[in-house]
TrEMBL record:
SUPFAM superfamilies: Glyceraldehyde-3-phosphate dehydrogenase-like, C-terminal domain (SSF55347), NAD(P)-binding Rossmann-fold domains (SSF51735). GO terms for biological process: NAD+ biosynthetic process. Its EC number is 1.4.1.21. Pathway: Cofactor biosynthesis; NAD(+) biosynthesis; iminoaspartate from L-aspartate (dehydrogenase route): step 1/1. It comes from the Bacteria. Residues 161-248 form the Aspartate dehydrogenase domain. Residues 7-121 form the Aspartate/homoserine dehydrogenase NAD-binding domain. The active site is at H213. NAD(+) binds at A124, N183. Transmembrane segments: none annotated. This is L-aspartate dehydrogenase. It comes from Peribacillus butanolivorans. The iminoaspartate product is unstable in aqueous solution and can decompose to oxaloacetate and ammonia. The keyword ATP-binding does not apply.
């Protein structure tokens, strides 16, 4: 599998190390990258034996089967449709770009037309399998996520002295207000009840060191309660290590003949 990478921050560098250096995706390699800053690109080319392009159009003209977006929602907005129209498969990290139902419908239509697939990793949470199973008979009734992070991992900054609820409302509104922090609510929405009906609570808590996500759901299957206590990534405390792992796992699963879950 020949991979392209847009965005070479925390998740992007993790993937370059895991795939190109540590061989954790047998038969796969990140052959093309696009990093906005030239000095970063040059360093990564040297370190990971990849090719760098100065714009996304040139990257899409290179020989890649799948493009990984690991940048921002704004970048995903700018490049996702281009990737699909170029006939390449796409894996999104900034899943918040899919919050809008009309955008999601448009992207699905273009995928069919261009015969490509989009991959949306579970990111820093779990439980999506339960929601999908519950939905098979339209039996999902409620879905809610409570995210608790240290203030330094949220836009509120690090000055808070006690636990503070920063947001309570729909996933659609949460991703508008916290585009760098709550992509998880959108993947949960896509697996479950949509971004208007999925409830979100975001808490800044100076007494926690981890990014904690509590998923609660109910329906004809019974009840789900799942809490993930994520270690943050060293270079970007806003991102949980599990989010990067889930991108790698999605790429690994893609090649498997036995699909679990
Ligand atoms: N689905 C999930 O569960 C999770 C999703 N995420 C999301 O994944 C994405 C990547 O996260 P992470 O790696 O930690 O973020 P980082 O901030 O560490 O890295 C993002 C990188 O993208 C680059 N970038 C920004 N805009 C563009 C652009 N227009 N074109 C090319 N590159 C660009 C930045 O470059 P520069 O240095 O030049 O600014 C930076 O190097 C984020 O959107 C994040 O919110 C994160 C955690 C969980
Ligand atoms: O990494 C996390 O814990 C969640 C996150 O930032 C996001 O969903 O955007």
């Amino acid at each position: 599998m020949k991979l392209g990478l847009i965005g070479c921050g925390n998740i992007g560098k993790f993937l370059l190390q895991a795939i190109n250096k540590d061989g954790l995706l047998p038969g796969g390699k990140i052959v093309s990258i696009y990093a906005r800053r030239e000095e970063i690109a040059a360093q990564l080319v040297e370190e990971f034996g990849t090719q760098s392009y100065s714009d996304v159009d040139s990257l899409l003209n290179s020989d890649v089967d799948l493009v990984i977006e690991a940048a921002t929602i704004e970048a995903a907005e700018e490049y996702a449709l281009k990737v699909i129209k170029s006939g390449k498969n796409l894996l999104l990290s900034s899943i918040g770009v899919m919050a809008d139902a009309a955008y999601e419908d448009n992207i699905k239509r273009l995928c069919r037309k261009n015969n490509v697939n989009i991959f949306l990793p579970s990111g820093a949470i779990g439980g999506l399998d339960v929601l999908k199973s519950a939905k098979a008979v339209n039996g999902l009734e409620s879905v809610c996520i409570t995210t608790r992070k240290p203030p330094s991992a949220l836009p509120a900054g690090s000055s808070l002295e006690e636990e503070t609820v920063l947001f309570e409302g729909s996933a659609a509104e949460a991703i508008k207000q916290f585009p760098r922090n709550i992509n998880v609510a959108i993947v949960l929405s896509l697996a479950g009840l949509g971004s208007e009906k999925t409830k979100v609570k975001i808490i800044a808590d100076p007494y926690v060191l981890k990014n904690i996500h509590l998923i609660e759901a109910s329906g004809s299957f019974g009840k789900l309660k799942l809490e993930v206590e994520n270690d943050p990534m060293p270079n970007n405390p806003k991102t949980s290590y599990l989010a990067a792992l889930s991108v790698l796992a999605t790429l690994q699963n893609k090649e498997k003949s036995v699909q679990i879950g």
